[in-house]
Fold each of these.
Amino acid sequence: MKKIISVLLVFVLAFTCVIPAFAEDTEHPTIYITGAQTNQLVDANGKQIYPIVDDVEPMDVVKEKLGPCLVELAKGLVSGNYETYAQELYDIIVPIYGVVALDKNGEASDGSRPKNTIYTVNVKKQTANYGPWTYQFWYDWRISPMAAADELKIYIDMVREATGEKQVNLTGRCYGANVIAAYLVKYADHAVQYVDDVSYLASSVLGIDLLGAAFSGDILLEGESMNNFLNYFLSTGNLFEDDSVTVFLLTLVELMNQLKLLGVTGSVLTAVVDKIKTDVIPPIVRDTFASMPSYWSMVPVEYYEKAVEFVFGDCKEEYAKMIEKTDDFYKNVQLTVAEDMKAFKAQGIDFHIFVKYNFPDYPIYEGSNAQGDGTTSAVRQGFGGDYAPYGEVFSQDYLDSLTDKTYLSPDLKVNGATCLFPENTWFIKNLHHDKFPNVINIFAMNIMNNNVCVSDGVYPAFQEYVDGEFITIEGTDEDATKEEKNFFRVIIDFFKSFFDLLKKLFNGEIKL
């Protein structure tokens, strides 16, 4: 018997030493707060209005009206008057997306509402084995995060009652992180008492540059960013049945980039946008996405005040209650979010940050070649950090300047040392903003429940998403370290793809 006990003791001690991070397993129910556009919306009569279910497809509307719209744009460029063009564009976009818009107070006065709410979805009574989707917070993703925070507080108490647990964990995806941030500030005492861990997945608390540029009119098309985006879009979009078309367009983009024509094209397009943006953007966004306080909470602080002026302009008094809602989050949450997170951490709430990267963003703002997940820049997701531009690795000078490479990624694209919480920040490569598989929620839950830090080594900080699995990153990308193509090689590739395409067209193998 003593021999058996000794063997068991050795086993227990060995097990404890191997995985010290799991020594304090404190499972709590996890409340998952989804992002924007993830809950169905219905009108006052209960008919679904989002996702859009109209008989007419949005792209059919665009195809029908695009021609007249471009004609009016051409006339405007000649005359300098863009009012007719603005109206044509308004008639394309607003009927499609305006159906879910809120009123001038940022409220759903038309009776539209989410199909599911915390009051209509059953709160399961459960005491263990909580899954990532067991407790999902259903809410109207259009409203102010400060208003959603009121419902989140109620839901936390509902889950606590259903489980008998004193504390819960909170996981927020994209805009869901904004709702959590609002709740933490608005109900700080409640949060400190009843929340153990918080995880942010591709957080938009610090904003989304794409929205900031669109709402403020700070549109800028840079050649390098256009090159990155077009290459990614053409390579992954499956736009054409025959690869010859895609190959030709890719070589054309590369040739234009080599000749600096993308930069020239970007400058020309930026100049056109500068002429028309005041007539076009404010009325369209006011009656669609800028009617929703949720989207305003995702405008970065650098853009916010200019965006309010640009969108509302002379009608600020008319939209006073809307602006009051957007100011609330901007002033009381977003401006001090880093300091607030540190304060909450000191009071016992742990934060776990998940950053997704290795995708180009839409090339409409300055610096859009930054590393990100296709929607949100990595530096905003991670509340800091250093990142090589998309498609590149850190320069040798930067690498030589580092005295500590503890948080440097093996692919030489990320250095998490300057993140707000480097010990609690994980980086997921090749997982797009729009993708949130179950595995990442389980991944996040394990980290929260077991109080894991990066240095524990249980979950290495740098992971790559491959075929539904997370794999630890081990080295650099081949394409990120290779030399740029020789100019003559680019020309040869272009003409080769051009003649291959012509050959297939003449032979009737493909049709454009």
Amino acid sequence: MNKLRTFTIGGVHPKENKLSEQSSITVLPLPKQLVIPLGQNLGAPPKPVVKKGDEVKTGQLLARAEAFISANIHSPASGKIAKIDEAMDASGYKRQAIIIDVTGDEWVEGIETSTSLNKEISLSKQEIISRIKECGLVGLGGATFPTHVKMMIPEGKIAEYLIINGVECEPYLTSDHRLMLEKGDEMLVGIQIMMKALGTEKAIIGIENNKPDAIAHLKKLAVNYNGISIQPLKVKYPQGGEKQLIKAVVNREVPSGKLPIEVGCVVSNVGTAFAVYEAVQKNKPLIERVVTVTGTSLSKPSNFLVRVGTPVSDLIAAAGGLPEDTGKLINGGPMMGKAVSSPDIPIVKGSSGILLIKKVESKRSTPQSCIRCSKCTVVCPMGLEPYLLAKLSKLSVYDKAEKERIMDCIECGSCQFTCPSSLPLLDFLRLGKQRVGHLIRTRK
């Protein structure tokens, strides 16, 4: 077995709580109505190409990306456009969305719905990138960066390695784990497609060694795919961060403010690799994804294959219903996820999990004065000083926060997790990043 590796700066070890790791992926039935927010990608939202009253089919284009960093949106089911209006999303704010009254599941012609494996990659490099763009793919690891843009390597740069993130270090979440076990061949074909688009001959899948079944399964499959290797990793949060993963897998450090391509790497999630397979080999747009629904009081922690736009309440009902002792509903995992105000929000392309936390666990401790213990600095995987950046953000000293590299923060929550004074460090870091980011954009 390959030697276990990990990143070297910071990191924590929260309880894993992978309650749904043995739960096979179950297809969730279509809801009566889909709410499809336009803002499902990092960058500009696409523009609607349908109107109220239009009849649409599954896979039909609903909104076209017009900006460089944007992604198309397609219909997750067949039905009628009820309206294009504002609807609440996971942020708690109302955003523009396309609302569809579902009538069935009639697919657009040209999309292959069979599950037969297609390993022959017939499209050219440019055709692959175009197909990925047409199908509206975004990174499914959480950042939702348009995948076709990531495949376009800047002039003068070379992608030596494609690094695939199978770490899933966030506690509770198991959607990537199940995908690796159940769709391994399709994922590996997707990786080879991305390798062709990037012009690289080396791909490495990083998987933490708390998933020995996934490691063994993919190692067995990978012998049939040229250039793909599996790298087991020590369990340490936040190893799923792309800079931490690059350090762990190929021992390269991405400079402050730079992208992975600066050190010859492109990082993508296992879910994205599977979506690339479906887009390129089946002409299937990104209209569904695997979502974990979990919690210690939930009767059936599960992994569901869900159409985009499905209300979260449908997933909770399918997992046994909302427990009476639920205190918070989290979109994502406990470390980086955010609490949502209602179970009626829709699943979007970036939804990896829904976590139900007990009331007794959801209450925050009363913040105390910082005791300068430096624990937050020790665990920060980016080598920052979270206590200082949080204070600068609280005091609105954003120019100083920028100089202290607040934009390098990956919002992993390790600082807040380890703080003995229960300070809301992550809250202030997120606020500071938002304000400093605005200042930077204003200058440009």
Amino acid sequence: MTQAAPPPPGVPVAVAGVMLAVFLFAIDATIVSSAMPTMVSNLGDIELYSWVFSVYMLTSALATPIFGKLSDLYSRRVLILLAIGTFVAGSAACGAAQSMPQLIVFRAVQGVGGGAVYSLAFIIVGVVFPVEQRARMQGLISGVWGVASVLGPAGGGLIAEYWDWRWIFWINLPLGILAATLIVVGFHEERAASRRRSLDLGGATVLLGALMLLFYGLLVAANQLDLVTVESMVVVTGVVVLLTLFITIEGRARDPLLPMSLFHIPSYSRFTALSLLAAMGIFGIIGFLPLYVQGALGGSPALAGLTLLPLSVGWTAGSIAAGQTSTVWGYRNICITGMTLMVLGYVPLMFLKDAGGMTVMLLAVSCSGTGMGMVNVTALVAAQAAVPFRHLGVATSTVMLFRTIGGALILSIMGSLLLQRMNAAFTVIAADLKTSVPAPVLQKLLNPQNLLDPATRSLIPADLMPALTAALVNALWWAFLVGLAAAIAGLVLSCFLQGKRSA
């Protein structure tokens, strides 16, 4: 397999620019959360609250495979500058938004640029560094994500409280320009002469349609009592039809968007599957542990955020550690260790009533985060090493897309299961409370997210709270069981991975 040449002297400057661009994308995924109450009070339309987050992640996921393929066809330098420009333009527009619908549209633009930046960052590292150095550099870039996830919520709250929430987005303008400048100065690629190729527009259109339908279905399912409904069946059927059509198109295309032959490479397909399972395991904790801290333990939003801090720190540490040791210790050993840590992190979540308090919980999430950091970097580097160099871009972006799908999938399944279990318990509880609790309050209690609202909690009779808390803990146990099953499946798969880097 043809390998990239050793990095030229200017590459450290370019890597600094790439890391800064990744930092901006990563921090914008979390910084908005703590500033949203202020933004909603200014713009209105609270019913559109969740779309500010969802549309950003959706469009970033949709951009991943497209820019991954484009990076194999055209100048990666031009593409990442275009991506940064799109992200900066979206950020400027978000800061100038005068309504919630405008903010959502501009967040979609920002997500396209950010998703492209994120995938191109790992692709560029794979291009300019040889295999034995990739893991270390990928680990450092993954560590940037961990740092951003720690600083994001705190930074958003401080800017909204002491400055102006619009600067959450406008701060990206000078930093984005700086990142682009560093890349222009430091990254000068030499592309080998080859026949002219074009983007598979038919395949791209069908794949985008399938992904949009899939993410829509997962978003809706996360807030439904029943996973099997007429709407969900229509969505599943549509996704299957579109994916079947996509595979057919790719099999006939002269230059396919996603060569199906990649999945015939055992190492690549297994590490890609592991990325999906690992994402399911970690996002099960990220998505629902704050609900346990606030809803069941009665903790504050600040405490819920603090609970995830060790996870972010562990993720960063695990990424850096894996990057330093993967070429010596081997891919399989690191992935087995990482998935074992993630499984161990779920153990206290299986004993929520007697978990040993917050100290044990913090140790558990730190353990899970460290495991994810190890698997996250190792699986990506191993997948890159398993494919021909000419497919490095699309192979990298596909692994990242599977991670995103894994996260969205587990949140959907766990969210629906949580509502089912809460509804079953609520039916029993509500039968004895119809005369003592107002109907509107009873209806609010059906959704466990409302237990996070101080105004709603204040309306709950004191003698009812223990029953609701117990119901929530039971529902969360079943939800976390699904996340644990995904982590165990990832651990089993890790045992069948290739031990050393690909030849």
